[in-house]
């Protein structure tokens, strides 16, 4: 702050200073009254200006307002006064017949947010001109509607008037808001034709429009074409800097700032300059540049002009993860306002220092007596959500209720996020249902929250409510994406196709994020061919689309297709990233393509821009182990940059079971159970390995460890979608009304597959039971029930699709292979690890799961 503004200033008086008395015209001449009204309006004395009008109307010497009287009065209207002045204009016959007054009426209603009234006045005007159209275009809030009006304006005026400066600075921001660069270029052409492109305001808006549309090359051209001097002032430089910042072009932004400060340019940076360029500083690589900017700010004294630049510095240091410097900037602010506290609290919350953010909030409200605003509460809630601290979240909720902030949409959505992040969807839903007028963000947050927290059914149900326009909202792009994620978590390809149709109707399929979600949905529902058809029809494919399609082939065991698509990706000029290679390695692992996988892994490690992550090593170690190359797998585990995690150890243990490598398997099992003693699936793997090698004592030891640890094996649950309805089956339960039919179907299938060579594998049973009891328990594993139900309720070539929450056991896997043969049906089972496509007695996994 400036030195003159300190906390020692004398208190303000309890009443505002009196305005000087209104001058009285010497004569009742209308020009004097009009001049007085205009002067008062220009001086911002709107109440005094409006007080003149009744005196003028009450004048006894026959003075009547004319077309120059009402516009300044209308300019001073801020509420219902405008309707009264409109009534005066109508009574005098000036509202419809005089464009000067009519234009002022349109502007007044637009300024007051009454667009319908503005359009009514406009439609009733007899002599509309370019100013009339400009006023109406400025009044509308919807940019699409504004551009429609611009088109109508050009048609209406024809060649009688070209767009002027006011038209262009109104229309170009609409192009920016819609990210319509082609329309912006057309308007730019009109600006060149009319000669207004060199006007400073138009030039600046052109740069801003192109930058907001992501067309930085065009923005640079528009900036360079602006005439030096008055045409390219500090505002122009700031707009260009803001464009680079918005598009994440840090190097270009810093280069332009240096050019701006060159001696021959003579363009001094101001507060807005720093506020434009500081947002590009994000992450440790930009910390050095940020320190340079900080030094520049201090040299120019810009940190003394108010708290906006210091607050921006705090936020920038927070984005760079340097909280120490953020705190130093904060400590240097003489008079800390709530905005400075907000910046520091937000910086800590964004860097995972949730406890510190909460303590800062307490210090701000208790020790310093600052009253939090909506941003303070939002930062506090972000911290509570990141910390998953329900108690603090509830305390913040109480504070919000006590201070009447619960109606603020930003705070309401932040509260929803806290409860969702804390796993309390029911509390979030109570808060959501209590809101009468739900905005789009609230719907999106709740739908995404259900999907992220493993409640896909609830997510889809809420999406359908939104789709039926409950609350007046059509589903948004984010809601549609969340619904697609929910479909991929259920055996609900039919519902997924409905989401796909919705996206087509809403013209959303060319959105990169949504199109990738559609590919992912089909792939995770086992319909990878449908995913490929959609992928091939995409007009614009980015690297994400290619990677998601490659990964889709990978999870479905289609390794050759994944590699073929990767080759095509290279021919199309797309560069792979770490996720692309992860998909390739998964594909090679699931398809047993060891040599290809090793080649891709080496290829990736040779690329300087891609670093091999733990997930990449996990895929390669899994491939080597599955191929029985345990020495190579162990050697890779020893040289990898991180310690092997449970996923890697689990894959090695599974391979040890498959190859009978008990000595290594015992070491891996001990390490795995030490690392994650609470996971029952690890005990199951170890027990199966010992049972497979007939080491019964070791098997019993593992089972005893499981009991002693008090770890309960997660019950198997499977789902199947029949005609749009999802049915669930739990191992050993028979709550379905048609269960007697399911049992009858299974007994029939069992008889046929026994004849084809099936024998129950009771070694997968952990419980100490008699042999016949184990066989009976195996019959009613959840996926067997679901498969039998699917065959019962469907016919012909229909695929039977089943989802399971845990890994498919060896016995069920063997049974499913034979069922696909005797029933002559394709069966798709997605378990916790991967997809199994059973056809003609074979599985896509090659008997490795």
Description:
- This is DYW domain-containing protein.
- GO terms for molecular function: RNA binding; zinc ion binding.
- Keywords: Repeat, Transit peptide.
- It contains 44 helices and 6 strands.
- The protein starts with 29 loop residues before the first helix and ends in a 6-residue tail after the last strand.
- Mean pLDDT is 85; it is low at 1-28.
- It is elongated.
- Strands 2-1-3-4-5-6 form a 6-stranded mixed sheet, covered by helices on one side.
- By secondary structure, the protein is mainly alpha-helical.
- 63% of the residues lie in helices and 3% in strands.
Summarize the structure.
The protein is mainly alpha-helical.
Keywords, please?
disordered N terminus, repeat, zinc ion binding, PPR_At4g14850-like_plant, DYW_dom, 849 residues, DYW domain-containing protein, 6-stranded mixed sheet, Serine Threonine Protein Phosphatase 5, Tetratricopeptide repeat
CATH structural fold name of the domain at 25-161: Serine Threonine Protein Phosphatase 5, Tetratricopeptide repeat
* Structural class category: mainly alpha
In CATH, what is the homologous superfamily of the domain at 25-161?
Tetratricopeptide repeat domain
Number of strands: 6
- Largest sheet properties: 6 strands, mixed
Strand content: under 5%
- How do the strands of the widest beta sheet line up side by side? 2-1-3-4-5-6
């Amino acid at each position: 702050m400036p030195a003159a503004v300190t906390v020692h200033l004398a208190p303000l008086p309890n009443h505002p200073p009196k305005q000087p008395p209104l001058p009285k015209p010497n004569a009742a001449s209308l020009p004097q009254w009009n001049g007085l009204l205009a002067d008062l309006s220009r001086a911002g004395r709107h109440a005094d200006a409006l007080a003149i009008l009744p005196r003028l109307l009450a004048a006894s010497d026959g003075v009547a307002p004319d077309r120059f009287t009402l516009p300044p009065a209308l300019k001073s209207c801020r509420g219902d006064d405008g309707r009264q002045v409109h009534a005066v204009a109508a009574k005098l016959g000036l509202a419809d017949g005089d464009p000067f007054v009519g234009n002022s009426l349109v502007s007044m209603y637009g300024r007051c947010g009454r667009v319908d009234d503005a359009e009514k006045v406009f439609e009733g005007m007899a002599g509309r001109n370019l100013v009339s159209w400009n006023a109406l275009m400025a009044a509308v809030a919807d940019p699409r509607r504004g551009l429609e009006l611009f088109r109508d304006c050009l048609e209406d005026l024809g060649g009688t008037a070209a767009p002027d400066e006011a038209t262009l600075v109104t229309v170009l921001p609409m192009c920016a808001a819609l990210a319509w660069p082609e329309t912006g270029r057309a308007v730019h052409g009109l600006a060149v034709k009319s000669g207004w492109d060199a006007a400073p305001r138009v030039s600046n808006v052109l740069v801003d429009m192109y930058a907001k549309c992501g067309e930085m090359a065009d923005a640079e051209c528009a900036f360079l074409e602006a005439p030096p001097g008055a045409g390219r002032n500090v505002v122009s430089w700031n707009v260009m800097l803001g464009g680079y910042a918005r598009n994440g072009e840090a190097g270009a932004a810093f280069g332009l700032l240096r050019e701006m400060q060159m001696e021959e340019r003579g363009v001094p940076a101001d507060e807005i300059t720093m506020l434009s360029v500081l947002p590009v500083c994000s992450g440790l690589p930009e910390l050095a540049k940020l320190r340079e900017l900080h030094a520049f700010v201090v040299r120019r004294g810009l940190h003394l002009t108010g708290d906006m630049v210091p607050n921006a510095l705090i936020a920038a240091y927070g984005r760079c993860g340097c909280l120490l410097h953020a705190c130093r900037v904060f400590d240097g602010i003489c008079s800390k306002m709530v905005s400075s506290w907000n910046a520091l609290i937000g910086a800590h919350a964004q860097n995972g220092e949730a406890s510190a953010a909460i303590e800062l909030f307490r210090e701000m409200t208790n020790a310093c007596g600052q009253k939090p605003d909506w941003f303070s509460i939002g930062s506090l809630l972000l911290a509570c959500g990141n910390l998953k601290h329900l108690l603090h979240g509830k305390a913040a909720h109480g504070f919000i209720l006590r201070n009447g902030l619960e109606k603020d949409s930003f705070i309401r959505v932040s509260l929803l996020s806290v409860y969702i992040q804390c796993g309390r969807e029911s509390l979030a839903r109570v808060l959501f249902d209590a809101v009468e007028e739900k905005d789009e963000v609230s719907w999106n947050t709740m739908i995404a929250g259900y999907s992220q927290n493993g409640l896909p059914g609830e997510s889809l149900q809420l999406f359908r409510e939104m789709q039926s326009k409950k609350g007046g909202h059509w589903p948004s792009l984010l809601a549609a994406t969340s619904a697609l994620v929910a479909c991929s978590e259920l055996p609900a390809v039919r519902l997924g196709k409905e989401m796909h149709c919705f996206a087509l109707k809403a013209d959303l399929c060319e959105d990169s994020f949504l199109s990738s979600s559609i590919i992912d949905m089909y792939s995770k529902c086992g319909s990878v061919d449908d995913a490929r058809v959609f992928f091939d029809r995409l007009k614009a494919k980015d690297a994400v689309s290619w990677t998601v399609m490659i990964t889709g082939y990978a999870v479905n065991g289609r390794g050759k297709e994944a590699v073929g698509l990767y080759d095509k990706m290279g021919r199309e000029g797309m560069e792979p990233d770490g996720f692309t290679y992860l998909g390739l390695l998964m594909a090679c692992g699931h398809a047993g393509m060891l040599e290809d996988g090793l080649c891709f892994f080496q290829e990736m490690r040779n690329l300087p821009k891609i670093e091999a992550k733990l997930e990449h090593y996990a895929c390669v170690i899994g491939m080597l182990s599955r191929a029985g190359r345990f020495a190579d797998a162990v050697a890779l585990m020893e040289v990898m940059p991180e310690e092997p995690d449970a996923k890697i150890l689990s894959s090695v243990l599974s391979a040890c079971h498959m190859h009978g490598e008990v000595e290594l398997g015992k070491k891996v099992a001990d390490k795995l159970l030490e690392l994650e003693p609470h996971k029952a699936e690890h005990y199951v793997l170890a027990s199966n390995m010992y049972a497979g090698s007939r080491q019964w004592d070791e098997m019993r030891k593992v089972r005893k460890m499981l009991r002693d640890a008090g770890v309960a094996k997660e019950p198997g649950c499977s789902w199947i979608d029949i005609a749009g309805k999802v049915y669930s089956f739990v191992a050993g339960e028979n709550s379905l009304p048609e269960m007697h039919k399911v049992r009858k179907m299974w007994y029939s299938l069992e008889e046929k597959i026994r004849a084809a060579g099936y024998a129950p594998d009771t070694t997968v049973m952990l419980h100490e039971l008699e042999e016949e009891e184990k066989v009976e328990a195996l019959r009613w594993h959840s996926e067997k029930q679901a498969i039998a139900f699917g065959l019962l309720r469907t016919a012909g070539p229909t695929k039977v699709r089943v989802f399971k929450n845990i890994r498919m056991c060896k016995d069920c896997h063997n049974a499913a292979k034979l069922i696909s043969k005797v029933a002559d049906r394709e069966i798709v089972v997605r378990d916790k690890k991967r997809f199994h496509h059973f056809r003609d007695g074979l599985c896509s996994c090659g008997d490795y799961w």
